[in-house]
Amino acid sequence: MRILLTGAAGFIGTATWRGLVTDGHDVVAVDLLVPEAHGVATRDDPPAGLHVLDVREASAWGDLFQGVDVVVHLAAMVGAGVTAADLPLYAGHNDLGTAAVLAAMHAANVDRFVQASSMVVYGEGRYTCPEHDTQSPGPRTREALDAGTFDTPCPVCGGPLDWALVGEDAALDPRSSYAVSKVAQEGYAGAWVRQAPGAAVSLRYHNVYGPGMPRDTPYSGVAAMFRSSLERGEPPTVFEDGTQMRDFVHVDDVARANLAAVRAVVGLEPATHRAYNVASGHPIAIADVARHVAAGSGRDVEPRITGQYRIGDVRHVVASPARARDEIGFTAQVTPEDGLARFATAPLRA
Length: 350
Description:
seven-stranded parallel beta sheet, three-stranded antiparallel beta sheet, single chain
């Protein structure tokens, strides 16, 4: 098939581009090469075969859509969106960019779409109370966080909650500007499949890590930040109390999920939009992420637990990988324990 891939030169995009070519597809690769993610040097010397274009101007891409069977849309501004000043970045690149790509696809009669979403659309994950079953706690307050109370209480009785796996049918509850933009991207895809009509798959990536990850930029994940601390001879800095739970999924597994979604979306009926969690299926505490990276680097260093926090961060969000396994045949192959240790010495982007 002929695949148009946006964000093709990025961390996930590079692995996906390689996987699509290996699978025999003809890839039309597009990336804006924003300096925050790629550095100035990469923009001056782009990868061979890359079209340096802005997704917000997709209507002007002309012949690039000719003969395309599926668009895989990975281009986005990423990160938590720490301040209100970040809002226009996310709204422009993510919201407008996605809408522009979908409109250009419709004009070119391309009707199959795979997009990168994120686990941040859920806000907090799924919780259960021993007395009141499944509960949906609200955002944590500054007062509670300042007092070192990081766990979310049951909204009915105020007692402790246990985390559980969240499924794709859970209500969406974005709690940062980035998260809001990812919900918007899924919303545009859902509207487009009915209006075009077309078929779309949204992949809710969890914490992605692996070779080629950016080093010390807004696009760096926490695993890369832990590694940089270790390389400076410092213990990794962990916010809150380090017991917050996440799912860390290797970039090669994410590329495999993207390929599985490409194969699946061509078989969907028009006006169909499906969302899938892309997770390793092996939940892990953030402090243990730091420990695995430290062990892989050969350093016997305990993380520094600071008690600091970021407004907009959630306590626990760990998803079920069952639907992706059952419906598109995706199962992660790399466990965090193994992958994070190897990540400690893997090549990174400057």
